[in-house]
Amino acid sequence: MTNFCPQCGTSIPGDPNFCAECGTPLPISEELLLGAADFRAEFPNPPSLGNPPMSSNLRKRAVALGEVGGRTRVEIERFLGPPNSIDSIAPDVYLCQWMQQGTFGGLYHIGLIFDRNDFCGGVNHESAF
Q: Do 43 and 66 belong to one domain?
């Protein structure tokens, strides 16, 4: 089934996140959200967490956190601190993003998706440059 961009009307094959013609963000398909209302069911037994590292470096804290799937937002914020932004991306699904400018101009950015119960479904995107 071919979809069309709600902004410019361009035919959109497959299931991309943005319209290739005008750059408009596209809604997430129901297939991608199937089961998204309960990420905890996908990750029933995440390993126990130790203490967060005593580091101001966001990337080091994210590495120390390890696997995020099935963890609560409270657990993740204990390691990473509060997110820089929170955005709804679909019904019952939201994105938290953490960003930190490095001392010498680098940037670390990580985005995690959460369900309505504040359980993490995993990393949506991550970049370091």
A: yes
pTM above 0.85, yes or no: no
Q: The domain that contains 101 carries what CATH number? A: 3.30.1450
Q: Which of 44, 46, 83 is nearest to 67 (CA)?
A: 46
What's the one-letter identity of residue 28?
I
Pairing, β 11-12 against β 85-90: unpaired
Contact 121, 72 (CB under 8 A): no
Alpha helices per DSSP H over 1-129: 30-33, 58-65, 73-80
Chain segment 41-99, per-residue pLDDT in tens: 666 666 677 777 778 889 988 998 888 988 999 999 999 999 999 999 888 899 999 99
Asked if 54 and 105 sit in the same domain, the reply is yes
